[in-house]
Every structure is written in structure tokens, then in C-alpha cells.
Predict the structure of Exostosin GT47 domain-containing protein.
Amino acid sequence: MGRDGNKSCFACCFSTPTTSSSSAIKLLFFIVPLILVSFIVFVLVPRNSTWALIYSLPPSTSAVAAAAANSSEKLGAAVHAESSQQVLDLPSRVVKTVDVGGSSGEATLSDSDEVAVNRSASPPLSAVEAVTKFQELNETKEYSSLNTSITDSDSLDITINGTPNNATTSLNETIALPLKHSRQVRTKLDKVEAGLQRARSAIREAKNGSQLQDPDYVPIGPMYWDAKAFHRSYLEMEKQFKVFVYKEGEPPVFHDGPCKSIYSMEGNFIYKLDVDTKFQTKDPQKAHVFYLPFSVVKMVRFVYSRDSRDFSPIRRTVVDYINLVAQKYPYWNRSHGADHFMLACHDWGPEASFSLPHLEKNSIRALCNANTSERFNPVKDVSIPEINLITDKLTGLMGGPSASQRQILAFFAGGVHGPIRPVLLEHWEDKDEDIKVHKYLPRGVNYYDMMRNSKYCICPSGYEVASPRIVEALYNGCVPVLISKSYVAPFSDVLRWKSFSVTVSVDDIPKLKEILMNISTRQYIRMQRRVLQVRRHFEFNSPPKRYDVFHMILHSVWLRRLNVRITDDHGVVAN
């Protein structure tokens, strides 16, 4: 058939018999391209079309999608935010907002994490594939451990760096990025910090929430600054807190310590944490804190030259060890030591920490000698109890009659050293039948029996502020009477010491009996019952038990870690 015949054939398909030949040709040229375009669109566009999604995105989103399609490489993203954050304010025992610059108020929580741009030789996704993948990511990111859901009050002011031409795009906008690289935006450190943020929020909300149930123990009563917040914090610690113990160093100076002496907590903590499987992690990238496992007691014995008065060998040992782990691992330099902690019960513990400025000023120092006049900082440092253990068990160290059966008003026996004890003995040694104060106990009189028969146990500082008598008093159901200067009592971030102890200033030592006699019988009975309740937090157990002294030390370190935010770019946001 000729050309005219073809035209007539096509015309017959789209016109009536009465239509002229010229009109049919014009209609043919209009319809054929339309049919071809429709066929191409039908074949190439996916059935679950995402074009509607593209048009619904903000203008900047389409630009990012186009950039992803045209780029010859895949780009990761760097997340970096610098602002104020939610912290657990230890002195006031509440969660509040603190501005990084120092002013407190209602500020916005922010991250400060920087991730290097990741590049790949694989071809990029097309614009349609990128948007489709990102739609799938949006549907699942609520459940993804790498993308934490944050309430409006805790929203992060995050920018995306690494887009073409150094563009900065707000995270409040939906961004069409390939799925793989969207997940790489969050580093392992980001994941750790996101978990800490969830814990902060849970602790803050616990204050006004209902009392949580616990099969072992439910903190309640005036012995706690905020029992609900403490309970939630403790449960959050059990759920996620991880400690990395540096394996470098050899005994006896490292990974070793005294377990049966006045400094027993130093050795017992090192040992318990070394063998712990619940809180210790072998992966440092999952760790919230890093433990420096040296013993100051062992340094004094094996490194320090007795009577030399030269402390430099101990300082060199500390500096050399931190230099070793700083060269082998990136974590000390990343935070300047802010997520590292040491523990020492020796009197020279603070002095050992002065070996490095960052160890003293940034790191968490868990010290028995918690003396603010010697630069102990209650906001970042931890006061731990001094416990004089004779064996690895508490057998025979705990007990005592009820409050009504205690006949002695107050008791003390101990050596005369330091500035406070001479004043106490001067005023009360063998001066009063109700105040039993002795330098040495009479023959045949048992020290612990005297405590168990006393209402109040006097706990004056010696050369250093800490005294094992505080824990001994609690073990024996005796209300402690604290006489010291610049001493921060153990776990005072959680425990409200004035509800179960008596504090007497050095100047008021002459009025000691008057102060104690002015406490009503009803109030004393209340305090004594509270002593029996809180002493579980000072009990040493082998193996450790929930809420005991080992876990309380860990919890205090956990609280300090909640008060800082570490970033990959050597940044620390602190209280």
C-alpha cells in the first residue's frame, strides 16, 4: 500500500468516515507523540511511584536528591552541633538545663559529634531510587538504634556538612540520601551518647512518675534526695552502663590492690571490676567510661622510696601509664580524660591525680579522701567510703540491738592524730559517763560491742577527712556523728546524710552532749531506722549484690558521665 494508503489507514483509526484527509493527517501528528510518551512513562516509572513524594518535599530536598543522582561518588554526612544540654545537676539533685557558656536556663540540648566524610567507588543511586530508599528509612528510623527519637524539648540543632558546595541543610527538612550512608551519619560514639540522652530524659521524668517496682529493693524515704530519680538512674545504669578496663600494666602496681586493710576498697574494686561481666565491655567503642586500673597503695609500697619525701616516682608512673594508653588508644585524647576515671583510697590519692592536669581537672576521681580543700570537686569527682575489711566477708561486723536497747549516748575510741581528735579528747576523754571517749579501750572491752550499745558513734577525721568509723557505725546500727572540715560524705549526690546522721563542727565539740541531748527520742529512732535502711549501700559483698557499695560506686561514676557529652572532634560539653 502506498504512502496515501498508510495515511488513510491511520486516519480511519481516529476519525469518522466523513472526516477529510487533511484533518486526519493533522490529528495523526498530534496523537502519535502523545501515545509514545505515555508508553515510555508507563514502562520506566515504578508502579509505586515516588514522584508525589518528590513534589511534596521542600525545595532544598529535591536539590539534594538531584545532587545524589548526578554525583560520581556517594557522600556521607558529618553531624556537628554545639549548644547547651540537659544534665543531671548533682548539687541540687534535679535535672535542669545548663548553658555551655555558664548561664543556666531553659536551653536546647545539642550534640557535638563530627563524622568524617565517607566515600565509595560504587555508582550512586538515581534520584528516584534515592527518594524511594529514604522513604523506607523514614518508615523504620523510629525503631533504628542509630536514630534516636527525641522530644521537642530535647530536639537537637543539627546541620548536615559534606553536601556539595559546602551546603548546609537543616535536619528539620527531609533529606533524600542513600540508605546506607544515612545510617553512617551516626557513629558508635553517637549511639553511646544517644543512649545517655535517653537515660537523662528517663531520670528527669521519673521525678513526677509513679514508683517503680523492684524485686530486690525500692529506694524510698527521706534518706534520698530524690528516691524516684535515684531508682530510675540505677535501673538505667544496669540497663546500659559499660566500662572499658585498660588491660595494660602488670601487678602489683596495676590490676592489683589491698583487699584486707583500711584501704580495702581500692583493691576490691579493681578486682571486682576486672572479673565483672555485666558492666565491663571488651569493645572500647561501646564504653561510656574508661577505668585506669592503678593502685596508689601499691605505688606507695613498690614505687615510692620510704622516707625520701620524693613523690616524683609515683607521678612518673601515673604519667607513663596514661601516655601508654593515650598512644595505643584514641579515647584519652578524644575527651582529654573526661570519660576516664581512677579510684584510690590511700591518703595520697589526690596527690597522684595531680600528676597530669587533665587527670585532676577533667577525669572522674573516685576518692576516699574527698577533701574540698585539696581540690576535690563534688560535681565531677566521687566520694567513696573507707572500709576496714579484715576478711572478704562481713561476718561479725554487722548487727546490734534496736534503738530502745542502746544505753550509751555516744562513743569514740581511736588514735590521736590530725587536728580534730586532740580537741575531742581534750574535752571529753573520761569526762562524762554518757560520752564514752577513749584513746585506747580498757582491757576486755570490745570495740564493736561498744558501737552496738551506743546511740551515736563519733566519727572525727584524722590526718585525712575520711574515717572507716562512718561505715562501722552504719554496720552496727549506730547513728554517725560527723566531725570534719571540708569533707564530702560518700554518695552524697544520692543520700541525704542529715536525715540519718549528725554533723558537728569542730567549734561545737565542747557542746557535743548538749547537741545530742536536744535530739528527741522520736527523732533518734527515726534516724536509727534510716541507718539500717541505707547501710545496704555500704555493704561489701563477694560477689557484689545490687545496690551494695560496689554498685553505688559505679552509679556515682555513671552520674558523672551523664553530666558530660563527648564528641569525636575532641569536644566535651560539661556541666
